[in-house]
Design goal:
Length: 399
């Protein structure tokens, strides 16, 4: 995981020159396969012989608590068909495009309030003052987590995303996991009470309420699966979106010509957002996949139990797929997020929400503070040690 390295892209470009897949010895002394080419990454994400279920992970990964299984329990991103198909169908039914679209006015109101608050200070951290509270409020309201508890969620989410590299980080990760599980158990109990008897016809159930109602009707989701799904939605739905806004703004500040162009032509924003997703994706590496049988991938022989790491950040810049992929160009005629939301059965369920939120965040920011500037040299921005690629801070002068 290279999420804290300021510029891993040169290393990825060199690897792609050598080939699409590379055998690497992990820090624990075991072989893993790093996939850097676009086509190979796409096929890894589609291959049913590569499992996402931690039960198929090799023992050394489980011993080192590297499978993430403990954090979320049973959830979409840690399961294979047929369990994955069943849970995904249920969550997709509750997490509809209509439900996402209905959030538009609320997202705008939250963004406007935050920007108004920010205007009182000459300099702020864009992540803590804007991107984080925006994304956190939206996901908590969507799931029915009371506002008073959202700060706890931010802390637990961050704790559960710490790479478990030593005993101290493992302890923090376990603490966050336990606290989040405990809280979600209580939230589910509370919602159970509220969804029965049924809501009034004009009352919108939260996503959690809709999931519980569907679950009680057909007995299709166990309590453990519901808890894992909620934890996944909170974690996947928060930290990624915060860092999309942060990474996108940092990339624009680093490419002042592109930043100027966007300020002068705000209509470029939809295409610019796709390009920024491709160029500065918060998900650098897909979750590990485990070979369930001996197989050959892009010419490499991988034994059963082998760990395959699909590098989205590298695939998104592959010259075979995108011209001058290491350049940021917000005017690309066919700009695409490429593999930033994954591909295949585990394709991001929150992609529409993430796009809506990020677009509204950037639009509102540009409109309210057209003179926005980075308050430090771009080289001094530091990347966080986290499973999601993001910056420690993005200090800005509002202008
Ligand atoms: C899966 C990226 C926002 C919910 C994924 C995957 C990626 C991704 C790459 C696939 C991982 C893999 O196959 O290993 C992103 C990015 C986001 C974002 C870049 C923001 C910029 C969200 C939001 C939500 C969400 C806002 C929900 C509120 C999920 C879920 C899955 C997922 C539930 C698992 C789907 C499955 O396994 O079937 N996301 N995500 N994501 N994402 Fe997102």
């Amino acid at each position: 995981m290279a999420a804290h390295i300021p510029d891993p892209y040169l290393m990825y470009a060199r690897l792609r020159e050598k080939g699409p897949i590379h055998r690497k010895v992990s820090r624990y002394g075991h072989d893993t396969w790093l996939v850097t080419g676009y086509e190979a990454t796409r096929s890894v994400l589609l291959d049913p012989r590569l499992s996402r279920n931690p039960h198929h992970a090799p023992q050394w990964m489980r011993d080192q608590e590297l499978t993430g299984g403990g954090v979320l329990g049973i959830n979409l991103l840690a399961s294979d068909p047929p369990d994955h198909t069943r849970i995904r169908r249920l969550v997709s039914q509750a997490f509809t495009r209509r439900r996402v679209e209905a959030l538009r006015p609320r997202i705008q109101a939250i963004a406007d309030d935050l920007l108004e608050d920010m205007a009182r200070y000459p300099e702020v951290d864009l992540l803590e003052s804007f991107a984080a509270p925006l994304s956190l409020t939206v996901i908590c309201e969507l799931l029915g987590v009371p506002a008073k508890d959202s700060a706890d969620f931010r802390r637990w989410t961050r704790e559960t995303m710490i790479p478990p590299i030593d005993e101290e980080s493992k302890a923090v990760l376990r603490r966050g996991t336990l606290a989040m599980k405990d809280y979600l158990t209580r939230l589910i109990d509370e919602w159970r009470g509220r969804t029965s008897p049924r809501l009034a016809p004009d009352e919108q159930p939260t996503l959690t309420g809709a999931l519980i109602a569907a679950m009680d009707e057909g007995d299709q989701l166990s309590d453990q699966e519901l808890q894992g799904t909620l934890a996944l939605l909170l974690m996947a739905g928060h930290e990624t979106t915060v860092n999309l806004v942060g990474n996108a703004m940092a990339a624009l500040f680093r490419h002042s010509d592109q930043w100027r162009l966007l300020r002068e032509t705000p209509d470029l924003l939809p295409g610019a957002l796709e390009e920024l997703l491709r160029f500065a994706s918060p998900v650098e590496m897909a979750m590990p996949r485990y070979a369930t049988e001996d197989l050959t991938l892009a010419g490499a022989d991988i034994p059963a139990g082998g760990v395959v790491l699909a590098c989205i950040a590298s695939a998104n810049r592959d010259a075979a797929q995108v011209e001058a992929g290491d350049s940021l160009d917000i005017t690309r005629p066919d700009a695409q997020a490429m593999l930033s939301f994954g591909h295949g059965p585990h394709f991001c369920l929150g992609a529409a929400l993430a796009r809506l939120e990020a677009r509204m965040a950037l639009e509102s920011l540009l409109r309210r503070f057209p003179g926005l500037k980075l308050a430090c040299p771009p080289e001094s921005l530091a990347w966080r040690h986290s499973a999601v690629r993001g910056l420690e801070k993005v200090p800005v002068v509002l202008g």
